[in-house]
Amino acid sequence: MAAWRFIDPHVHCRDWREAYKATIREVVELARSQGVVAILDMPNTEPPITSLELAERRAETARSEGVDSGYYLYAAATPDEARLEEALEAVKRLRQVVGLKLYTAPMRGLEARDLESQRLVYRRLSELGYRGVLAVHCEKTSLFREELWDPSRPWTWNLCRPPEAEVESVRDQISLAVETGFSGTLYIVHISNPASIRYVKQAREQGLRVVCGVTPHHLMLSSEDMAKPGGVALKVNPPLRERRLAEGLLECVKAGDVDFLETDHAPHASWEKYGPPYLSGIRSLENYLRCLRWLAENSVPDKILRDMTYNNSKRVFPMIEE
Ligand SMILES: [Zn+2]
Q: Are residues 81 and 75 in contact, defined by beta-carbon separation less than 8 angstroms?
């Protein structure tokens, strides 16, 4: 494992107006310290990546910080036809843009919350013949129970945004992809519930091009850990689940049903985590190698680890060079 190189298809590099949280260079250096040679940055930056011009500006920022390899990004797929086409231009014309990212839960106004606006994205991409990757954050907002969130009892985040909200959204995305004849690759990111993986597997068996990933924190931690001192810092989207669901995820990994180990590395300043607004996000890249060792100790074969940390990314994102 020591000589292995890894690709992380889901990180948040911040920078720009959020450089106080992290810069692209800092995240790239942290990644390299873990053996991760390529990272794929998500587009919910400030400002977000919604066009070729913004994607170029992002790539230029990376270069200006001395990052000349291993940095890639997504453009945001928003439920606005003109903006969606601009995002698509970024994918078509800039080599570093690996695909589109769609948010179904609130995210700085980028999201497509209801089924109708999600349908618009799938329909338009299908009409335009998009064959690239559409990464989707799946949480069905109509199933959220905001009133249950209590920061003094941090595990309530798992009640506020329950496991079913993810599963139902995964089902929605699969139905929309089938209904609209979507011909790209659907990538369900950071799955927290084994039931979601079962739907992915079923859809794959029925011929849909769909892949999925899990994070180190959803595997190694659980909502029970949020009852410990400092547990509020483990607030993340989707939330950490009960231990039995985390164990279920490990079984899915062992069965070879998970395509990627993705960190969803999401740095914040500590005051934003430990006090209002109690932002969601964990610095999971720090635990990449620890997670790999943990998976190996839990009898995940090397072949599966190799596929999840490198081979599948090379297959799904053929533009990646390191
Ligand atoms: Zn993320």
A: no
Contact 219, 246 (CB under 8 A): yes
- What is the per-residue DSSP string for 96-146? TEEEEEEESS-STT----SHHHHHHHHHHHHHTT--SEEEEE---GGG--G
Digit-coded pLDDT (tens) for 124-168: 999 999 999 999 999 999 999 999 999 999 999 999 999 999 999
Q: Phi first, then psi: what are they for 283, rounded to 5°?
A: -80, 70
How many angstroms does the Cα of residue 283 sit away from the middle of ligand 1?
11
Q: Is the pLDDT of residue 276 over 90?
A: yes
Token pair 């959020």 is found at 18
If you compute the radius of gyration of the chain from its CA atoms, what whole number of angstroms results? 18
- Centroid of ligand 1 to alpha carbon of 266 (angstroms): 7
Please report the pLDDT score of residue 3 as a whole number.
81
Ion ligand 1: residues, Cβ under 5 Å: 264
As to burial, measured by CB atoms within 10 angstroms (0-12 exposed, 13-18 middle, 19+ buried), residue 69 is exposed
> 77 C-alpha to center of ligand 1: Å?
14
Domain boundaries, the chain: 6-316
Ligand 1: distance of its center to the CA of 294 in Å? 22
Ligand 1 center–CA 254 separation, angstroms = 24
208 Cα to the center of ligand 1, angstroms: 23
Residue positions counted in the chain:
322
- pLDDT category at 2 given cuts 50, 70, 90 is low
The single-letter code of the amino acid at 151 is P
Average pLDDT over residues 223-245: 97
Report the CATH architecture of 6-316.
Alpha-Beta Barrel (3.20)
Q: How far is the CA of 264 from the centre of ligand 1 (A)?
A: 5
How far is 102 from 244, CA to CA, in rounded Å?
29
How far is the centre of ligand 1, averaged over its atoms, from the C-alpha of 9 (Å)? 10
CA of 21 to the centre of ligand 1 (A): 15
